[in-house]
Amino acid sequence: MGKVPATEAFGLAAKDESGVLSPFRFSRRFQFLLDKLISCCSVGICRTDVCMARNEWGFTTYPLVPGHKIVGVVTEIGAKVIKLKAGDKVGVGYMLSSCRSCDICTDDQENHCPKMTMTSGGKYYDDTMTYGGYSDHLVCEEDYIIRIPENLPLDAAAPLLCAGVTVYSPLKSHGLDKPGIHIGVVGLGGLGHVAVKFAKAMDGKTDEAINRLGADLFLVSRDPEEMKDAMGTMDGIIDTVSATHSLLPLLGLLKYKGKLIMVEDGGGKFDRIGGIKESQEMVDFAGKHNITADIELISADYVNMAMERLEKGDVRYRFVIDVANTMKPTP
Question: Signal peptide position in this chain (predicted)?
């Protein structure tokens, strides 16, 4: 009851642990009364996609359609949808659903819910597999959809749904979002470059800049003199580096009661993201301050090459697939 026929979809999927992506036709799950059908316009690529495609964490189910920072336009809505309408710009991040009833969910931290359903490579409560955003459309419940501000371009907004909330959340929750706070960001990659932009906007100095990111100072951690001069100067440090590295030099940079926050686990596994309420707050903040990710827009047929380049750190700073114009079924 309350269902309509499943929708046929086209995307890119990994079929085995080689992680190579190839064209894939599949059916999206039934749409329910509270679902929205989203025509995907762009989707970001990150290290999580590579790890899942290659089963580096040991729980991938094939075929896998990656993609968990998805932006697009609502094309159809269920009968009970009230929050959005057809034509709205929206996004979907790392999760499609959660239990909604546990203490974690009621505290707006659905990303930590034991029954959280991943957008890609998870299993929905109707026992269907979840296929991610490397595809032409997506079905999602309205409570897990993020509204994208009109002034933000969809392609450059896509990485915010993962990298953006991963750094915005700790800045807010640890009190590092106040004017005058001195923040250090370790690692200038996909996460780090967005962290710099958010930290500067929170400090109210968006017009000050070194290069394009808005940092006040670039500190080379391998330079002992630079590190010595910066000792005890930082209220907080956001560490975005996934590779194994020493934390002792970073601790020395902190003021008394300063905070070192790691948003990677040292092995490249799982960015911490945030709940739906906080994700919407983050995107709204980005819209207010015109914050987007720095991206390289690619076609769907370039994805495998992009993943190879990503492994080498050869991107500034996020790849985004132009789904709307290049994700086309083969005859």
Answer: none
Nearest Cα neighbor of 50 from 317, 307, 318 is 307
Question: Alpha-carbon torsion 239, 148, 89, 156, what sign?
Answer: negative
Residue-by-residue DSSP string for 94-115: SEEE--S-SHHHHTT-GGG-TT
Q: How many helices (H) and strands (E) does the chain have?
A: 10, 14
Q: Is 127 exposed, middle or buried (0-12, 13-18, 19+ CB in 10 A)?
A: exposed
288 pLDDT more than 90:
yes
Residues in the chain: 331
Per the listing, tokens 């955003």 go with 133
The pLDDT value recorded for residue 207 is: 44
Tell me the CB-side half-sphere exposure of residue 34, using CA atoms within 13 A: 8
Q: What angle do CA 190, 196, 197 make, to 5 degrees?
A: 95
pLDDT in tens, 100-135: 999 999 999 999 999 999 999 998 887 888 999 999
Task: Please report the DSSP string for 185-253 in residue order.
Answer: EE--SHHHHHHHHHHHHHTT-TT--STTTT-S----TT-HHHHHHTTT-EEEEEE---S---SHHHHTT
Say how far apart CA 53 and CA 62 lie, in whole Å: 9
Which positions ≥6 away from 177 have C-beta within 8 Å? 171, 202
Element (DSSP H or E) covering residue 284: helix 276-288
Of the CA atoms within 13 Å of residue 13, those in its CB half-sphere come to 22
> Which residue from 331, 330, 329 is spatially nearest to 10, judged by alpha carbons?
329
Contact (Cβ atoms closer than 8 angstroms) between residue 71 and residue 157: yes
Q: What is the value of pTM for the model shown?
A: 0.91
Structure token digits, residue 69: 């920072």
Residues 6+ apart with CB under 8 A from 228: none
